[in-house]
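Task 17 of the worksheet. Students: predict the tertiary structure of the chain below and write it out as structure tokens. Keep your answer in the requested format; marks are given for formatting as well as content.
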Amino acid sequence: MADYRYLGKPRPLVEGAEKVTGHVRYTADLVLPRLIYARPILSPYAHARLLGFDLEEAAAAPGVVAVLTAADLPLSDRPATSRNSAVLARDRVLWRGQPVAVVVAESEAQAADAAERVRVHYEPLPAVTDLEAALAPEAPLVWPDGPPGEESDLTAVHTDEQAGGAERQASNVHTENRYERGNTAAGMAEADVVVERTYTTSMLHQAYLEPHACVADPDALGRGLTLYTSTQGPFLVRDEVARILALPAAAVRVVPMAFGGGFGAKYGILEPLAGAVALALRRPVRLVLTRSEDFLATTPAQATRITLRTGARRDGRLTALEAHVVLDNGAFAFRLGGIVSALLGGTYRWPHVRIDVQEVHTHKPQIGAYRAPGAPQAIFAVEGNVAEMAAALGLDPLEFRLRNASREGDHSGTGRVWPAIGPGPPRRRS
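Model answer:
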């Protein structure tokens, strides 16, 4: 009889005692000498031109230290290429909730009160806020002069399955790619049952209990700063802040604090802004988003539309998969087409595969990771079709899945060979 010394046994959390007794210290609990508090001003428009600011009333409010725009911060003149580098908008806002200014005061309440007195002048512009509108022939372009070049790739944190593909200058489609093996027309002709369905998902926020929070403490001699932050990737945050603020990586120290949940979303969105404000004012700054600000200003999971056509024979063998995938990446590219395609065409053993992927810009926040980025959307689609095929063939749905599950040596939807992944012994090579 097996001796299960670990499985099925309760294990205390390492940090459990300090949490249940209320002694844990999160970023929002940190107080440093001369600490000041920041409150961002967010755009009420999905797309608009920034015409100017009236800041005098806010600056004169009690306790206010400064009201800052992008021109007041130590930022490079290079255009933003990602949500992390979109510290404060300069000439144009690209989504509802993009930060355009920041109020800094001696207390959180004073900063919040003064933020109500900031007046921002906008010229609203046409916006595309869903996939259908973005793909229409006469759609307003998110990037009329072509998307800015990417200087970092946060998708690499999660996988090496990248979408690649050609850039598009005159379209909201920023990347297109096709992954193909075999002959799907022949595979569909062999099938005794073919199922075609379209699956859609909406943007979905990670909704961690602790919102984004950061305390930035500048070095007294002007040599860099220390960031106390709720983050899933301290080294990535260090490198991003150093790049965006033009500092050596060695000048940025990141101290990860107790973590109130992230699910893939906390990789340096807030730290460049907090750090820039701290460097500009030479005082430690605390920036903690409200729940509403967090929903508007951070990086939710992407909206998707997946049209999937699959075939199987009467004996329960799969024959072919064809898919057209459209991903809503928001204002900046966050390439997940490769991950979605890998799972669509690689969860099961499809002899013939063709997957066309379009990744699309819209006037919405850049999407980000959420618990295996792209995986829930891909699996939602493929499992829906597999369940329908099993029912149509009168086969047990579990046995149908087990018979066709990919194993070591099979191919993912992008053509990559799977390593050992669990379902069974390696597939024999002919």
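Marker's comment: The first strand starts at residue 36 and ends at 42. The CA atoms of residues 123 and 351 lie 53 Å apart.
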